[in-house]
Request: fold
Amino acid sequence: MFLKRNNDELKADRPTLEENNSIPKLPFSFLLENIRSVHNVGSVFRTGDGIGCKKIYLSGYTAFPPRKDLSKVALGSENSVTWEQFDDPIEAAKHIKNKNIKLIALEQTYSSKSIYDFKWEFPVCVVLGNEVKGISEELLHMSDYSVEIPMQGIKQSLNVSVAAGVVGYQILNYYKNKI
Reply:
């Protein structure tokens, strides 16, 4: 028989914001380019917190904290994950690449590999594009590789925040199995 833990028990096991700062982070980040839904952005923050990602780069017209509607979905994770905002996604990408971080586009291209077959090299930053248009051509060309989530049904893609969760936890699993 399984007994469900209550919310107070779960909260008691969570680190405080101060403790969170001393927890080693995964050498992994997200770059969000022109994400139109503030709810998707908040959800990516929660995923980033859950996997222990190092940073979230917000670019273009992607919403950024502080925003009440973002906080409502992020549930405080916008305070536990380091983030940086850039008006220009290309400047964000240059900033990331100047830190010797590989840019990996999560996009369906003619040369993209499955996230399950890709040999992840760290540090890495996964680029997530606009919900309708995907990643811009310019940012796609700046990326070192492209990966995709294999789709088995009639739809060709997942919601961007769901895709962030799928790829994020795949990277976390890959990293933990490598160290």
